[in-house]
Write a structure and sequence with these properties.
- The relative contact order is 0.15.
- This protein has one domain: TIM Barrel.
- Strands 7-6-5-4-3-2-1-8 form an 8-stranded parallel β-sheet.
- Helix content is 39%, strand content 19%.
- The protein has 8 helices and 8 strands, in the order βαβαβαβαβαβαβαβα.
- The protein starts with a strand and ends in a 5-residue tail after the last helix.
- By secondary structure, the chain is an alpha/beta fold.
């Protein structure tokens, strides 16, 4: 479980760390960078789950253990070049726009294999798997279909020789279906940490 901690303060994060959570997701870079020094002694695992802009890759490479929303070759190259030697390999997921929604980030399914091959060329990156935010639907069959397509793409990566182990899909509204379709990581915010500060 990835606790999505955007707009939650350090005290709230510390409380949930005491309950056993160690992985926290943020989608606003500056907010995350402000929290990290205050919580450094907890040894938290920080995941970036927001849209990756090229002018922010250095900070992501230097301050996060995971970047889950990689969707372009340029971002892969920049993260690899900017990852400090002392930090170890940066865990990345490729974000796939499985339902081809214009308002969402993510690579098309047809681009994923080439991006995975590129990521595999860099020792400073470790490709862990895929991340997706399928279209919300009131029809369970449609959600099962979308999540199932992500799982199929994940299995294609494995068959091609990529050592992937993470399928990050499912949030509060659809986590049960995501898990049924093979999710290994669900991203939960309000339903876990409570209402966010505005």
């Amino acid at each position: 479980m990835l606790a999505v901690s955007k707009r939650h303060g350090c005290e709230r994060i510390s409380t949930f760390h005491e309950l056993g959570l160690t992985a926290f997701g943020e989608n606003q870079l500056q907010e995350a960078l402000a929290k990290q020094p205050e919580l450094a002694d907890l040894g938290l695992e920080w995941h970036f789950i927001g849209t990756v802009q090229s002018n922010k890759t250095r900070a992501l490479a230097e301050h996060f253990q995971w970047v889950q929303s990689v969707d372009r070759a340029k971002i892969i190259k920049r993260l690899a070049a900017q990852r400090p030697d002392s930090a170890g390999a940066l865990n990345i997921c490729l974000q796939v726009n499985i339902d081809d929604e214009a308002q969402k980030a993510g690579a098309s399914p047809g681009e994923i294999m080439d991006l995975a091959d590129l990521a595999g060329e860099y020792a400073k990156l470790r490709l862990r798997g895929l991340m997706a935010i399928p279209r919300l639907s009131s029809v369970p069959e449609q959600q099962h279909h979308s999540f199932g397509l992500v799982k199929e793409l994940f299995e294609r990566l494995r068959q091609a020789g990529h050592d992937v182990d993470t399928l990050s899909m499912g949030m509060s509204a659809d986590l049960e279906i995501a898990i049924a379709e093979g999710s290994t990581m669900v991203r939960i915010g309000t339903d876990l940490l409570g209402q966010r500060k505005t």
